[in-house]
């Protein structure tokens, strides 16, 4: 099964996960920016990975549009985010925001926890995080999610691990047996 991992990454977490997946599946890997999109139909399986940004998955609209009418290539999506895996409700909401009911059932999707890297963050993103920290800091009464978020975004952190690629890798390996 001809497979490629295509990723978008600003601070390196998604790139790192894409490289781990590429190694494990022994397949091609490319950044979205360097990938010639017209060659997508040459692949049996495209694994698209990007970050969660303000509750949505970066670039998902474009990648879905690319697959309209593309029936021979299977799309698999993964997203990396600072939200810990245990926050299942939060993660489900992210998927519900970016996929329709039908897409939720037909596009396999996987979440991988990552972290925050202030050193590599763009000026715009750092400004958004600082503003959010200020808003939360000023709030006198906070619910547990807000308190957790305030603590989480105070500094850079890394909760990524290679083990989080296992469900996706196993899924794609199963597909390879079927196709
Ligand atoms: C402005 C901004 C907004 C973010 N919003 C979310 C979010 O809504 N949910 C989440 O889980 N992580 C969020 N994150 C964390 C990123 O998803 C995480 O750092 C991601 O792995 C970065 O991927 P990259 O290093 O490949 O660019 C946000 C990060 C930034 C800078």
TrEMBL record:
Cross-referenced SUPFAM superfamilies: Flavoproteins
Signal sequence segment: none
Positions of the Flavodoxin domain: 4-140
Pfam families recorded: Flavodoxin_5 (PF12724)
GO molecular function list: electron transfer activity; FMN binding; menaquinone-dependent protoporphyrinogen oxidase activity
GO biological process: heme biosynthetic process
Transmembrane segments: none
InterPro entries with a match to the protein in the record: Flavodoxin_CS, Flavodoxin_dom, Flavoprotein-like_sf, Protoporphyrinogen_IX_DH
Identification of the protein by name: Flavodoxin domain-containing protein
